Amino acid sequence: MISFVTRRALAAFAALVFANVASAQDYPKRPINMIVPFAAGGTSDVIARAVAEQMGIALGQTIVIENVAGAGGSTALARASRAEPDGYTIAIGNAGTNAATYTIYPKLSFTPDSFVPIAMVAKTFGIIALRKDFPAKDLKEFIAYAKANPGKINLGHAGLGSSNYLICKSFVTAAGIDATLIGYRGAAPALTDAVGGQIDGVCDAAASVSQSINDKLVKGLVVGSTVRLATLPDLPTSAEAGLPEFEAQGWNGLFAPKGTPQAVIAKLNAAARTAVETEAVKNRFADLSTVAPDADEHAPDVLQKLVTRDVEKYRKMLADDANK
Q1: From the record, what ranges are coiled-coil (predicted)?
Q2: How deeply is 83 buried, as exposed, middle or buried, from its count of CB atoms within 10 A (0-12, 13-18, 19+)?
Q3: Considering the chain, what is the average pLDDT of its residues?
Q4: pLDDT at 23
Q5: How far is CA 185 from the centre of its chain?
Q6: Which of 31, 50, 115, 268 is 20 to 30 Å from 201 at the Cα level?
């Protein structure tokens, strides 16, 4: 016989389940907050804004962008992890914020299990760009210059643990050079300093640096891709430039706090799928040399596998950077 206490517990559980289902059915009833872990103008921000606008249309609610820069994205992810798991706070992340950060900042208040994946929304390509008056016309000359001047070249990135930092790290490792990597509170301020000549160059994604290269505000050195980008047809791939070891193809995905109802995740996933298939996002991504996921890459478990893979990958690559 079921005790009175057990019956009350079961009733309470059933009521909770019913409330969650009912809540998911009429979700969303108000605007959704999307946390971007970097300053406005950077790759994650540009992608987030394009996707959020179309997701909002699909959901019938506005998605408000909130830029929370700091600590390579971990400040934003800490905030997102503490949010109410009701679907009204989500975050965009990448291999830096949601994988490498656990090695670089081992005492974080959150773990990979603090989030549930919603969907991958973009695939990106890393570029090394230099101030326009840098004394090297191609990658071979740049590497020769760097080796002749160890420690004197400085490259900006969006903060320790960011995807741009990973581009920098992969590049200097592949090139075998000693360069100073300077962290900023986002990709945009780093690019601003490169344009102004305050630093020698930036490690950035095509999404945020392509226009500056085309406008000749900085000069592109190499793209860590297997094929040239349509928006930068004159920029050589790493293999063409003589450094095939440099690979910089990344991803951006949406996450929600652990405990967010699966029915809500399903609605957000469907909206994300719809968003990246719209002409508006396709055209924006084309301008940014960014690619939407393939049809079989939209599922939350695909994003989860990327996180699991990259946590281990960067644990090995970045062990020396922990606690810096």
Answers
A1: none
A2: middle
A3: 91
A4: 58
A5: 14
A6: 50
